Amino acid sequence: MTSSSWNSFEHKLWGHFKEFGVESSGSYVLAVSGGLDSMALLSVFSRLLPQAKVKVAYYHHGPSEVESQNQYRQQALEHVRQKVDELSLSGYEFVTEGSQQALVSEQEMRDARWAFLNRLAQEGDGAVIVTGHHWGDHFETVLLKMIRGTSLEGVSAFKMWQKGIFRPLLNCTKDELMSYVRDRGFLWVEDPSNQDEDYLRNWLRENWLKSLEAKVTGGPDNLARSLFKIISSAESRGGLELVFAKESKESAEGLSREWYLGLTKAEQLTAIALFLKKHQIYQFTSGQLEEIRKRLDKNQKDFTFELLRRKWVINASQIMLQ
């Protein structure tokens, strides 16, 4: 299958494969539960990498006291197995494993599932594990971590590519996945436990977020975008602070002009704020930071100016305060 036959959604996802170099990996382990997102993942892979070596992995969470769960789990297993057979791709192999005892909590299920996926990846000489997590999953995970108590590191742990785990659908909404899967003629199996509000994630999704949407139209989406922007900004600032500390140590008299000019405008504002604090200047406004940034944005080799009651001295290599 050539790229000319891909649709726009598949072309967009292929960009993520290329971005992280995943398209050249030797083998893959696809976590496929039979639900909407994982069936979308299987469809995407069968289209973009039909010649790849892929283990389509289904983990059965074992016996349940709820009969509808037993029926669902067996139905999902057979659904995934049948779809892999229908694809008839020589490198695609259906692999399954199940717990012999009942797994009660979400954590027990997650731990058992990931132990299975990690073992398959190791057997495949470091195969890439690929999951179908989407934008909504990411948002719910961040909310859950914040409710339970976390740090920036905790909410930053969900990445598209991270330590051998690839989440190509992470920027896709559930509506996008549903439209894509329907266009491709793929069916999926709904987990009845997704309606059980005893699970905090389900309560958030079915109760709290829906109540927020009813109260403020677009509220959940706005909240998600705001959280992701805050996390991204904090991550950038944290990384910049580490680099700034290194640059400041190497340039004791001031700040490396070459390094500063290589930053984005937003990063330059952060660097100026850090530079001022290094010189025990803590009282400044965002407008003053922007004015300093504009004055530093000159092609002149040597120049000076005064702002915040200090003289700024700039030469070819350094930005200094007197």
Automatic annotation (TrEMBL):
<dbReference type="GO" id="GO:0006400">
    <property type="term" value="P:tRNA modification"/>
</dbReference>
<dbReference type="InterPro" id="IPR011063">
    <property type="entry name" value="TilS/TtcA_N"/>
</dbReference>
<keyword id="KW-0436">Ligase</keyword>
<feature type="binding site">
    <location>
        <begin position="33"/>
        <end position="38"/>
    </location>
    <ligand>
        <name>ATP</name>
    </ligand>
</feature>
<keyword id="KW-0963">Cytoplasm</keyword>
<dbReference type="GO" id="GO:0032267">
    <property type="term" value="F:tRNA(Ile)-lysidine synthase activity"/>
</dbReference>
<keyword id="KW-0819">tRNA processing</keyword>
<dbReference type="InterPro" id="IPR012795">
    <property type="entry name" value="tRNA_Ile_lys_synt_N"/>
</dbReference>
<dbReference type="InterPro" id="IPR012094">
    <property type="entry name" value="tRNA_Ile_lys_synt"/>
</dbReference>
<feature type="domain" description="tRNA(Ile)-lysidine/2-thiocytidine synthase N-terminal">
    <location>
        <begin position="28"/>
        <end position="206"/>
    </location>
</feature>
<dbReference type="InterPro" id="IPR014729">
    <property type="entry name" value="Rossmann-like_a/b/a_fold"/>
</dbReference>
<keyword id="KW-0067">ATP-binding</keyword>
<dbReference type="GO" id="GO:0005737">
    <property type="term" value="C:cytoplasm"/>
</dbReference>
<dbReference type="Pfam" id="PF01171">
    <property type="entry name" value="ATP_bind_3"/>
</dbReference>
<dbReference type="GO" id="GO:0005524">
    <property type="term" value="F:ATP binding"/>
</dbReference>
<comment type="similarity">
    <text>Belongs to the tRNA(Ile)-lysidine synthase family.</text>
</comment>
<keyword id="KW-0547">Nucleotide-binding</keyword>
<comment type="function">
    <text>Ligates lysine onto the cytidine present at position 34 of the AUA codon-specific tRNA(Ile) that contains the anticodon CAU, in an ATP-dependent manner. Cytidine is converted to lysidine, thus changing the amino acid specificity of the tRNA from methionine to isoleucine.</text>
</comment>
<protein>
    <recommendedName>
        <fullName>tRNA(Ile)-lysidine synthase</fullName>
        <ecNumber>6.3.4.19</ecNumber>
    </recommendedName>
</protein>
